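QA checklist item 7 of 12: single-chain prediction sanity check.
[x] sequence parsed
[x] length recorded as 506
[x] structure emitted
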Amino acid sequence: MRTFCNHIFKNYYSYRFERIERFMNAPYQAQNKVFNNIIQASKHTEWGKQHHYKSIRKLEDFQERVSIQDYDSLKPFIKRMMDGEKDILWPGQVTRFSKSSGTTNDKSKFIPISDKNFKSCHIRGAWDTMNLFYHNKPESKIFAGKNFLMGGTWDLYKPHLKTIYGDVSALMMKNMPWVGRPFFEPNFEMCFMKDWEEKIEQMAKVALDEKIRKQVTMVGGVPTWTNVFFRKILDLSGEAHMLDVWPNFEGYIHGGVSILPYKEQLHRFFPSEQVRFVEVYNASEGYFATKLEHDSDDMLLLLDNGVYYEFMPMDEIDNENPQVLPLEDVKIGVNYAMIISTNAGLWRYKIGDTIQFTSVEPFKIKVTGRTQQFVNAFGEEVMVGNTDRALAMTCRELGIGVEEYTVAPIYFNGKSKGGHEWLIEFEECPYDLERFAHVLDVNLQKINSDYEAKRYKDIALECLKIKPLQKGTFHNWLKAKGKFGSQYKIPRLANHRRFVEEILNF
């Protein structure tokens, strides 16, 4: 029966691939269609009336009437939507809101997910990921087995009980059609547990059940938490690696944070070239990109999913009237802050991520970091993408595994020079920490020419410093701050020392 189901899914994905090819071959037409659809749909909303959507005919009209937005500017509208008001940012009543940690003044931010957005963006993006997985590996038997999901939690919004909010993964699982449920583990009651330590413990026991072990073909989740999950399974089972536990495992779908710092560890968990690691760019705001080819390290930008994209060059980020580009004007290798307008009512919304285009035929991207996560205390302009790559290169070169890390500047103090301080949780701390720091410093110079210039003969910056931390420090720190769950991530870079000092004091 499961083999038959897998055959049905495979044929369905083959049919859907034609749609992907259409927007790959006609990207501007696809984006123009999205733009016109969301503008026309919203012209009678409160936001649409305020900004005269009725008379918008082209992108220039839209850019002239709607300034760049952030969460704080949209928050009053979103609050009213959560309280049950209709036709505010998007037509009708929106009852789903994804919860995200974000970099705002609030502990959490709440992103509207209209019915249209839920189906045409989040769900379609997940289907597109599986579509391309089967396209690249036609012999796959993902749906002849079981898929493990590490979802988050959801809750009712008490001021208006028709509104629900939570991690977007939990909202998708909650609304999964009954026909899909037999293909996923664990049961939803366990998936939605709020105690993450207990949830991982219970999920690991399910993963080791003799009836399930041979059926598991895929896992989806954020590397931060899946690594904890895999370690727990190996601790309980005593097995050497995960393929001893799940012999028919095929693929790991990951997103949320870069996989680069975890790559060495993951290859030890799954020591086979047959296992595919598939990166996706799925955020609370939308499902934006997914891997096109298995042997590449970039992702295909999804252009017909109800999201209209604009791109702000990072050197414009502090300008009062920044230049913002449509898709047709982007260039390969430039760092852009991504601006989105969606069929959920986010308008010219700066989501806080930075990307680079790696190709324009078709449009493929890499996520390079966050607009507020960088170190530029001395003009070195180090981004998260730089540190992730340098750390991955170093771990590969020295055979070292890293659990988590964060970086902050060391400021000039008297006669001492500036530099960078790295707090790192190692899988096993290197015997020669000084050598690790030296190799990491050299690799970062290879990747970032500004950092290399500042490091020249130690004139401006000294070699980076490393402080190894005990295992679990980062997670315990997040837990102590009340930020323990799938939507909370370790801040990789900061242009201040607040996080580093907090962690060291903790």
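[x] summary fact logged: The chain has a mean pLDDT of 89.
[ ] second reviewer sign-off
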